[in-house]
Amino acid sequence: MTDAFTPIDVAGRPMANRIVMAPMTRSRAYGPGATATDLMAAYYSQRASAGLIVTEGIQPSPVGRGYPDTPGLHSPEQVAAWRKVTDAVHREDGVIFAQLMHTGRIGHPSLLPPGLNPVAPSPVAAKGQVFTHQGPMDFVTPQELDADAIARTVADFADAARNAIAAGFDGVEIHGANGYLIHQFLAPDTNRRTDDWGGGVTGRIRFGLEVATAVAEAIGGHRTGFRISPGNPYNDIAETDAVDVENTYTDLVTELGSLDLAYLHMIEGTDRTLTTRLRKTWPATFVLNPLTHPEPTGPDALTLVQDGTADMIAFGALFLANPDLPARLAARGPYNTPDPATFYGGDHHGYTDYPRL
Questions:
Q1: Distance of CA 119 to the CA centre of its chain
Q2: Nearest in space to 241 (alpha carbons), one of 278, 208, 201, 211
Q3: What is the pLDDT of residue 10?
Q4: Cβ contacts of 115 within 8 Å, gap of 6 or more
Q5: Angle, vertex CA 317, rays to CA 186 and CA 170, nearest 5
Q6: Neighbour count for residue 222 (Cβ, 10 Å)
Q7: With 0-12 CB in 10 A as exposed, 13-18 as middle and 19+ as buried, what is 148?
Q8: pLDDT tens for residues 220-268?
Q9: Which end is more exposed in the chain, N or C (fewer Cβ atoms within 10 Å of the end residue's Cβ)?
Q10: 180 noted as active-site residue
Q11: Which letter does DSSP use for residue 190 in this model?
Q12: 171, 219 in Cβ contact below 8 A?
């Protein structure tokens, strides 16, 4: 019987188990030029017994930054710094993918180089505030991306993916979830365009598909994953029409499936029926961050591998508290209790088990 401790081959890459360390934004890139640090190398190498580690969100370009002290993959210095992290994980026989996260309208000009402003599919400001070094600041109205800027942004993702491979990563995960740029294109409340990247489902999924295609062409589909969160309201997203959500994500997943990507990583909403539908639609490895709110994903989620709901299960907060989580899961405990202070603000800005914050 297949269980979470059965090895799995993901697009030709053997992984020791089916337990994934979910991406968790930490704001710990204190090195010069938003570079990774020795502390980050220790943090990830301690968790290398996961079948797959997905890093914190990494901005593919300077304008893609949405939080203070988050790392990038768009400069030679950043590539060199990340090599220390990947080498540390590989010494422990781990597998590590870099999550490429462009935050879009989520951010603030004070977090960006002079002259830059947050960008988005449409000039619609998010409600709420973002933490900066000057304290909480209201989200601003973002600059709408024109066709040329969209093309540059797609190219930025591809360049960052090449940089990830140069830095020693085993692959990348494209962040299309949690209200960040790709999700902003998918959602009708944040995408009010009337051109080829807006309107109906076909237009709204176009940007995400362009990014995935460019990244797969740059580094190979076998080294590319994609993350989605249908219906997730985090970062002031309103995907409230159930029929539109089903159509949007079914079409997106169908088109992504033709790119021969390594995996699809889904943050589950309230509808297990949609999870099942997308699981059947997706032709490759299906990673699930299951709905367990208000608790973090726990040991009970392992049964979702046994019953075929998912191929791999992503754990967030429990991995923070238990660096050796796979061994503890195999032994059925004991578990350190996650400290809410480490996953609500502070240590990372997005609680990794739906819903966010």
A1: 19
A2: 201
A3: 97
A4: none
A5: 65
A6: 15
A7: exposed
A8: 999 999 999 999 999 999 999 999 999 999 999 999 999 999 999 999 9
A9: N
A10: yes
A11: T
A12: yes
Residue that has been written with the tokens 């600059």 in this structure: 143
The single-letter code of the amino acid at 13 is R
DSSP code at position 340: G
Task: Sort 277 into a burial class: Cβ within 10 Å, 0-12 / 13-18 / 19+.
Answer: middle
| pLDDT-based confidence at residue 294 (cuts at 50, 70, 90) | confident
Query: What is the DSSP annotation of 23-79?
Result: --------BTTTB--HHHHHHHHTTTTSSEEEEEEEBSSGGG--STT--BSSSHHHH
Dihedral class, residue 251 (left if φ above 0, else alpha if ψ from -120 to 50, else beta): alpha
What is the residue type of 160?
A
Which of 180, 234, 249, 354 is an active site residue? 180
Pairing mode of beta strands 8-10, 13-15: antiparallel
**How far, in Å, CA of 159 to CA of 60, rounded?**
8
Tokens representing 35?
């570079």
Q: How far is CA 345 from the centre of its chain?
A: 17
CB distance 74 to 114 below 8 Å? no
Whole-number Å distance between alpha carbons of 270 and 281: 19
- In order of 132, 252, 352, the CA distances from 320 in angstroms are 23, 31, 11
DSSP state of 341: G
- Picking from 232, 294, 282, the residue whose alpha carbon sits closest to that of residue 256 is 282
Whether 343 shows a pLDDT value over 80: the answer reads no
